[in-house]
Amino acid sequence: MKGASVVILGIYVTDLAFRAERMPLIGETVAGSAFAMGPGGKGSNQAVAAARAGADVVFCTRIGADAFGEIAQSTWAAEGITSRATVLEGVSTGAAHIYVDERTGGNAIIVAAGAAGTLGAADVDAIEADIARAAVFVTQLEQPVPAARRGLELARRHGVTTVFNPAPALPFEDDIYPLCDYITPNETEATALTGIAIASVDDARRAADVLLAKGARAVIVTLGEAGALLHTPDESVLVPAFDCGRVIETAGAGDGFTGGFAAALARGERPLDAVRFGCALASLSVTRAGTAPSMPTLEEINAVLGERPVLAAQSS
C-alpha cells in the first residue's frame, strides 16, 4: 500500500525581499521600507507547506556548498523534511529578488535557480524508491523540464498521484499533460498555456477545458482572492478563499495551496476537500510576510476550516 508521504521535486532559493511603495524604473533608485532574507523557491516552499500541514515530505533538489545552501539544509531539518539534495561545489545556491508592494502585498519576483537549475533526469532516477513509496508526487517548472517530466513518468509508473504546478509558465511539450492527475496553474499561467484571458470564473472554466483536452485528468486554476476552481470532466466547483485578515504579502500563496492540496490528498481526503484545505492554507499565508516562513501549521488550518461552513461554492 502507498504511504502518506509527499515527494516534491523542485528548487530551493534564498529569498531577498524588499518592501516599497512601487517598483523602480530603469536607472532609478527608490527607498524601501523593509528588507528580509529567508528560505524560498517553489519546490522548497511547497515542501514546507506540506510538512507543516502534516505530511511526511521528501524533497529533491540541488544546492551549492555555500551559506545559502546551509540555510536550506537547516530549514528542511527544522521542518522535519527528508532532504534528497545534492550539494555542488563551485555552483551557487539559487536566490530570488522579491519586490513586495507595501500597500497591497502584491509582488514581482526574479528567480535565479543556481545549482537547482542543473537538475536532470538522473537526479529523479536516484529517488525512484522514494517516489514509488509515496502517495503524491509534486513538481513545477523552476527546474529544467526534462527533470519534471521524468518525475511525472516515474510517479505514473508506480501508480502515484501526480500534481504538476506549471509555474513559471514556460513552454513544454504536450506529452506532459497525460502524466498529470492534477495540473495547478494560476490565472496568468492558465492564460499562457491556453491563450484564454481569464477575467472571470467562466473564463477559467474555458481554459481548464483546453487543459483537459490536452490530457490532464483534472485542472485546478488558482484565482487569488477569488479562491480556486476544481475542474474535471464531471464537475466544476469554485472553492472560495477564506478571509483570515489583512493581506501582508501574496508571494508564496500559490506554493502554499499546492503543498496543502498535496498533503490533504496524501492523507486520503477527496479532491474537493483537498482544494478547500489548500485554500485555507493559502488564505492564512498571505496574512504573513515571507514565503516559506508564512506557511501555517495544521492546527491553524484546521481552526480556520472549523470556523467556516463546509463549502460555499458554485457548481456546474
Automatic annotation (TrEMBL):
It comes from Caballeronia glathei. It catalyses: D-ribose + ATP = D-ribose 5-phosphate + ADP + H(+). Substrate binds at residues 13-15, 41-45, 142, 255. Requires a divalent cation, most likely magnesium in vivo, as an electrophilic catalyst to aid phosphoryl group transfer. It is the chelate of the metal and the nucleotide that is the actual substrate. One of its GO terms (molecular function) is ATP binding. This is Ribokinase. HAMAP family: Ribokinase. K(+) binds at residues 251, 285, 288, 290, 294. GO terms for cellular component: cytosol. The lineage of its organism: Bacteria, Pseudomonadati, Pseudomonadota, Betaproteobacteria, Burkholderiales.
